[in-house]
Amino acid sequence: MEFRVAVSHEELSKCIKQISAWDGRTRLAVEDALRKGTKAVQRQAVQRVAVRTKKLKKSIKQGFSTTKLEGKVYSNLPYAHLVEYGSRATVIRPKKKKALKIPYDNGFTFAKRANIPAKAAHPFMKPAYEYEEPHIIAAVRRAITKG
C-alpha cells in the first residue's frame, strides 16, 4: 500500500504548464528546484513523524519524475495513513470462527470481540509540505526569472 499526500498550488501549476515556452537551461533549473523541494519535504516529514518503533520514519521515501515535473513523498507502510489522519473506534468480530485468536505474552488468548480504541491524528506529511511550500515556490520563481 502506498500512502501519498498530493497538494497542488495554482501559481506553481501555472508555471509548470508553461514549461514548453522555456529554454533547456530554465527547465533544468526548475527540475532542480522541484527535486530539492521534494527532498526538503521528505526531510521535514521524517522530522515530524511520531516515533514509536522508527519503522514509519525509515519508510518515508521520495521520488521525482522529470517527464511530469512531479515530486512525491510517500510511505508504503499499510498504517501510515492511520498515523496521518487518525482512526475512529471500532469493534472486530470473528468472521468464520467462534472467537478471535489474539497473541498475548508467550501464548494466545481468545475473545468473541476486540474493541479497538480511536487514535488521534498525528499529521506529518501535510505539515511538512505546508512548511516547505513557500520555499519551493520561491525557488521555482528564481529559476524562471534567471532563465
Q: What pattern of helices and strands is seen along the backbone?
A: EHHHEEHEEEEH
Our estimate of the beta-strand percent is: 15-25%
Low-confidence stretches: none
Count of strand segments:
7
Span from first to last CA? 40 Å
What coarse outline follows from CA principal-axis ratios? elongated
Q: Report the average pLDDT across residues.
A: 85
The overall number of domains is: 2
Secondary-structure content class: alpha+beta
State the helical fraction. Answer: 40-55%
The major beta sheet can be summarized as: 3 strands, antiparallel
| Rg over C-alpha atoms, rounded to the nearest angstrom | 21 Å
Explain how this protein is built:
This protein is α+β, with helices and mostly antiparallel strands. It has 2 domains: 3-86 and 121-146, no CATH class; 89-118, no CATH class. Helices cover 45% and strands 20% of the residues. It has a 3-stranded antiparallel beta sheet with strand order 1-3-2. Helix 2 (24-48) packs antiparallel against helix 5. The radius of gyration is 21 Å and the shape is elongated. The two termini are 40 Å apart. The model has no long low-confidence stretch (mean pLDDT 85).
